[in-house]
Write a structure and sequence with these properties.
The complex is a heterodimer of chains A (663) and B (370). Chain A has 663 residues and is an alpha+beta fold. Chain A contains 25 helices and 23 strands. In chain B, strand 1 and strand 2 form a beta hairpin. The chains are: A alpha+beta (663), B mainly alpha (370).
Chain lengths: 663, 370
Amino acid sequence: MKNFRKQNRKRPPDQDISGWPRDVTTPRITHINDGELDFYRRRAMYSSVVLVFFFVILITRLWYLQIQRGEEYTKMAKNNRVRYLEIAAPRGNILDRKGREIVTNRPSFNVVWVREKNRVDDALIKKTASILDIEISELLARTRKMVGTPGHVPIRLAEELSWDQVAYIENNRMELPGIKIEVVPQRVYHYGNLASHVIGYLGEINPKELSSIDSEGYRSGDMIGKMGLEKLREKDLRGEKGRHYMEVNALGFEQRNLKGLEPLPGNDVQLTIDVDLQRVAEELMMKDDKSGAVVAIEVNTGRLLMVASSPVLELDKFLGGISVKNWKDMLTNPHHPLINKIVQGQYPPASTYKIVTAIAGLAEGVITPESSIYCPGHYRFGNRTYRCWKKTGHGAVNLKHALSESCDVYFYQVGQRLGVNRIAGYATRLGLGRKTGVEMEHEKSGLIPTSDWKMKRYKRAWQEGETLSIAIGQGFNLVTPLQLALMTATVANGGTLYKPGMIETVKDPDGHIIEQFHPTVLDRFDDQGSNLKIIKEGLIEAVNGRRGTARRAKMENITVAGKTGTAQVVRLKQYKHLKEEDIPYKYRDHAWFTCFAPAERPEIAVTVLVEHGLHGGSVAAPIAKAVLEKYFGRRGKNPEETSSVVLFHNEVADAGRSSESIH
Amino acid sequence: MLRFDRRLVHNFDWVMVVLLLLISTMSLASLFSATWNGGPSPSPIFFKQLYFFLFGYAFILLLISIDYSELEMLSYVGYGAICLLLLYTNLFVDSIAGTQRWINLGFFHLQPSEPAKLVLVLVLASSYSSNEYVENGYRLRDIIRPAIITAVPFTLILIQPDLGTALMLAILFVSMTLFAHLRWSTITLLGSTGMGCAVLGWLYGLKDYQRRRIETFLNPESDPMNHGYQIKQSKIAVGSGQGFGKGFMEGTQGHLNFLPERHTDFAFAVWCEELGFFGSLFFLVCFFFMLFWGINIALTARDKFGVYLAFGLVMLIFWQTVINLFMITGMLPVVGIPLPLFSYGGSSLMTTLVAIGILMNIRMRRFQVR
């Protein structure tokens, strides 16, 4: 290289070393560093050796493949005939806690066309269209959609064939080359729209899902869970596709079947949900077009027995893709059917929150069960007057009466003594204001305000007057029905906050249990047993007492303990003078009722929210009662059973006494 | 700058135009066959590619009307823009099939790693041609700047992950650096470092699917239904073409869908199958003649930047061609490198056409035009 370079220098600048003929018609303008330029030109010329080298290799290789071994490869091309078709796997079933089938599969017969020769045969299309009784243009449209995909991927021409059509196509197979019947599992909803928000629905996989990380094994046209457990448990439910291998001849017709891979069905998912309870709640909510949520939970485990959100989703509208019109209707419907109100609805807890204020008051020692507060019907704080719901006032009340009669003034004062942050601490420990982690999508966390929160959010200091609203569950407070059910269960079981669960077991197709429900403790109150006992008394009184607000939930044989709530939506002067029925629907108050039973030995907690239902006591409580009646059936208050309770021994006596006192 | 000069018309590069039209025709004919779906008219894919060709030709006309020395300044702007686009794809674009390569422009999915190759050639040509000449060849410190220039898009493309294109950038860098006259000691040092990196990259840097591809290549029987399958089917397609091919539109491997990606990466296998050895030979002769013509353009360029640029552009087309054809004939594992001017894909086609446009530009201005 070195020598070569020196030679260049000596060369007269005029001489072109490139070897290529020079254009003599135009005089060349010499460069200052022309020698250097020539040096690079020479290198460029040498580089063409590399080009020649690779060119020769490629030609030699092509000669080897095409001429030397051409015969061999031609034979291989002719024998290249093994193809496979995918067989969809049956999705796992969804069962209720007693093993009743909620969602299963049935075979659906589709017509597919395997484009062996990749050529559209007009006669074939016409014949197929007449058999299927659909427009030729639609068949062509479906075909066009699949252009560019490999020909062995079948094009689906029609779904859900009748038996006659299936039989006809099978009998005329010879005249319909490439047309095949495909059996695809289709979802069957045995209980209609039961628990539709939680169970969810299937839809055709979209490009975005196809390109996501978990898309292995999916193909366009496959069904995939779009909502609820169908989506969250997609991995369990989907199963594994099978393959149908076949040999085809040079024209692409099937010659013989080869051994294939059977599809592997998905895992069965057994829920903790009880179909009977679910149906009772959904039917009652459907009556008078109520919208809202009903939740029932096993207080000692966290199993969800019923999760109803009303109005239900109409699953049949989602089958085969939802139309734009249906979707718009659902979005604009004032009852918001698309929202799963169990975890996505956030409402002021209203008077049900007095349970929290009471627990905080007792635990912090600002009140005792006997503390008596006089309620004249209003409470003056600062320069504002805070009203009790009962204008005439409750007179002197203690905690038990304050809870059972839902006296606002009592809790204004408890709240004022506690301050907002202490109340918030107890609310959070009871599961309010934080996500429960239940297997439902888009869970909302609710909101339990603190003074720090307000400072951060609004840049303003906390006003003590706001604490009074907070103490009775109004103001900034927001909870979801599920959170309130958890709180109720926590009070009922003596202070343990369980994580709510919906999946009892997941079983593989061979029946092996893959996943099993285990109670998970999120939080636990220690040393609050006696305080909770006092609160329970108040709640028992609310249902069973003469002046209790929740008398509509009282049952014959079972002692129910509960609390009503009426959550203000707006406080507008213009509606004050109106009768409740005349207030526009969307400005009416929400009705709450939350309860547990049997009070002596709690098993189940039920929370009902009726959106714009006006009164918890009259609207929500009867729904809870119906659910409890279904749950307990004809079971009476079996004395033997009651005496076996060890944990809540004293309570049993107390409860008995309080229920006696009503009569 | 856009001043009309009669000499430009006089020096118009008719050779390149004729070659380009010849290759384009073969490419479109093959695409027509590969994507034909039995309907009365060609597939939408065919038309899309045709429009890209026409648009590319128009763009070449625009491109040759400015002096290529203007591109030197523009190239840095382009380089910055491409790096930002690559960064954008890596950060914000949802991945398709595990990689993030495309930006959706509505009418067109732009794959910024394609123009990245072109811009890299421009920037490297500019960087090397502005280097002072060193008597015994460049030392390591002289190539630090070009190395960094390459490393940025290289890394961004590697993490997409698009191993093929990233390697392409590395190959371009190596080609152009060797062209720039390195010292032997530097070459030895860099060569051994490069080998070390390759070994480390194999052990730690490769994604599973990438390693599998290479392993499959080394032992095709281990994975007959996937990557080994692709190479095997491609070899069958090429080989069964024999001397004169099965005839246009008559290839069974392509039309019965045994051949994967038959209009993109494996497009040339369809040509080989349908037109046989002599058809492939004719195409390769045309194609390599175009590359030699490109070398000739480098030989006759008026300045150092022109020589570098022409050389780099030829290398850009050349290496992609070699890698793609090696893959189709089963001499390399499946790496996603298209055959320039032949594989379907707007980004790649436009990049190649622009490269050819710049070559024509250099050719037309081999004499100082002032």
